[in-house]
């Protein structure tokens, strides 16, 4: 049962990623809960409506967004937490954000038999400068 639920939610997450790349409004609406919030790597929090507006107006354009490893899942009674590493390249308000790695944590809840993302957190992975010899 737990593996089945994890598989369903991981499949939904892959579909959610695709809808961000394609700016698929219908899929976006179906896979994001009304109370959805995204905390992006700058620490800015966007609501579902704000995020969709940024995507549909072209203020946020994902040029690349893809998994680079396995998706880990913690499954509860009506909540699933996903964590995975991905690569991102995008434009925000006309500024190119270069290709970089990030960790994503996404929380899904079961709403009437449909798993919807309620929270997303993206954390950029930085290369730290080497210590001087």
From TrEMBL:
Pfam families with a match to the protein in the record: DUF4440
Superkingdom assignment: Bacteria
Signal peptide range: none
Residue span, DUF4440 domain: 10-117
Protein name stated in the entry: DUF4440 domain-containing protein
Originating organism: Amycolatopsis regifaucium
Biological classification of the source: Bacteria, Bacillati, Actinomycetota, Actinomycetes, Pseudonocardiales
